[in-house]
Design brief:
This protein is mainly alpha-helical. The chain has helices at residues 4-7, 16-19, 22-38, 44-61, 65-71, 76-88, 103-129, 132-141, 146-175, 186-213, 230-236, 238-252, and strands at residues 93-96, 99-102. It has twelve helices and two strands, in the order ααααααββαααααα.
Length: 254
């Protein structure tokens, strides 16, 4: 069973994007996001190209627009920070709606918003078209260190379990007449979080010991045994390839 939060990121479908091998999608997403990160912030047209490519993937994969927008909330902290940069930035200032803003800060704000948007959208599309077990298989096939893959798999697997434990602890507190809601009532919440951490750590040790006794070597077996075919790589290649061409042109013309 996969954690509820992980399942909420996946959109069931049978599109070409859904059927691609996970390692091909992971590699394509990483290279595409890397291209966006290396693109100069002044190359506004390049980010328009990235947005167009992502829109094509959204349509091909059949990802609902509401689903995508709802999960883009994750970049909200970056958005809030970005809007502060022109105010606290230094250098030449320009008037925007009667407010003096740093020109360099405005460019920095644009860079943060554009790159965070491309990265977050790419990640949401990857998770929306690939289930978590398949993502872990893809990372393993891409020779990602087994320790990293194992930690990620355990984190996802027991996320729901920890959330349920925290919910039961809060229910027990409320049943005993204590429902902390204010900052000065944070001590019981901190105590509960500490108890949850200790219990989760001990549970993790027991589970790891049980897995070792059953022959676990640090890598989960790949029961499918079907790595990405040449066709999968060719289908996943256009997006990162176009991203590479775009960032190359953007860097050369700056």
């Amino acid at each position: 069973m996969v954690a509820a939060d992980a399942r909420a990121l996946y959109v069931h479908g049978h599109s070409v994007v859904h059927r691609l091998a996970p390692e091909a999608k992971v590699a394509a997403t990483f290279l595409f996001v890397l291209c966006a990160a290396l693109t100069p912030r002044t190359a506004i047209w390049a980010f328009g190209v990235y947005g167009t490519l992502l829109a094509v993937v959204v349509m091909v994969a059949g990802i609902p627009l509401r689903f995508l927008i709802a999960r883009l909330v994750v970049v909200l902290p970056f958005v809030l920070f970005a809007f502060l940069v022109p105010i606290i930035g230094e250098g030449e200032r320009v008037q925007v709606l009667g407010i003096p803003l740093s020109l360099e800060g405005l460019w920095a704000m644009w860079g943060i918003l554009a790159k965070a948007g491309v990265g977050a959208t790419s990640s949401i599309l990857l998770a929306g078209t690939t289930e978590v077990p398949d993502l872990l298989k893809g990372l393993t096939r891409l020779r990602v260190p087994p320790v990293f893959v194992s930690i990620t798999s355990f984190m996802v697997r027991y996320m729901e379990l920890m959330a349920d434990s925290l919910g039961r602890m809060r229910t027990a507190m409320v049943a005993r007449g204590y429902d902390p809601r204010w900052l000065w009532q944070a001590k019981p919440i901190a105590s509960s979080a500490g108890a949850l951490f200790v219990r989760s750590y001990e549970r993790g040790e027991r589970i790891h010991a049980a897995m070792l006794s059953r022959g676990y070597t640090g890598v989960m077996p790949d029961l499918t045994g079907k790595p990405a075919s040449v066709s999968d790589w060719l289908k996943a290649a256009p997006i990162p390839l176009l991203g590479l061409i775009t960032v190359t042109i953007a860097l050369v013309t700056q």
